[in-house]
Amino acid sequence: MTQPAFVRARRPEHKQQRREAILAAARELALRSGVRDVSLGGVAAAVGLAKSNVVRYFGTREEIYLELAAECWLDWSEAVTARLRDAAGPEAVVDALAETLAERPLLCDLLGNISTSLEHNVSVPAARVFKRTVLGVVAGLGEQVARAHPVLTAGEGLEVVGAAAGFAGTLYPVANPAPVLVELYAQDPDIAAACPPFLPTLKRLIAALVAGLPVIR
């Protein structure tokens, strides 16, 4: 299919609109088929541009998804903040972290791909922006976790938040298996029984960490 003629966006607001269109297309494709299966060409086709034109705004496919990941971290931070504003105790902390992650499948999918692929093939400036965003979110949420459950120090709250994200990134692909595994599980229920349910397992892992950190302090 012939790509439409590229018209350079010259005004800052037009450039931002085009960046947002690319991010929106990448988000929709990832929600539909998973982050790992989306190519730069697929994003370009979805937004109606050639690949060479997409890279005018994002150097690589990975940079597109790294920016989306930063946006998802900030969105998660807002959701957890709202949950913890009037909450107290370990159970409230566990529920706030785990349930908001479960409500955000794109974030969980991205978390599972960040270290293995999305932090590769990106520029130093893109990596810097992403890392500073994540570190800011984790530090801020760590303080909120410690306020909601004062048995934890701010440093331990930070550990809990970082671990919750790490647990989610590890559990999500296991709890949402590939089609061949779905078929296998349908044929072999004993193997399917070993596939952990996402939210209950995530809550259990976070709860164990919340309970255990003060003990080993």
UniProtKB/TrEMBL annotation:
Molecular function GO labels: DNA-binding transcription factor activity; transcription cis-regulatory region binding
Residue ranges constituting the HTH tetR-type domain according to the UniProt record: 16-76
Keyword tags: DNA-binding
Keyword hit for DNA-binding: yes
Pfam families in the record: TetR_C_34, TetR_N
Residues within the DNA-binding region(s): 39-58
Superkingdom, taxonomy of origin: Bacteria
Family annotation (Gene3D superfamilies): Tetracycline Repressor, domain 2
Protein name stated in the entry: TetR family transcriptional regulator
Organism, scientific name: Planomonospora sphaerica
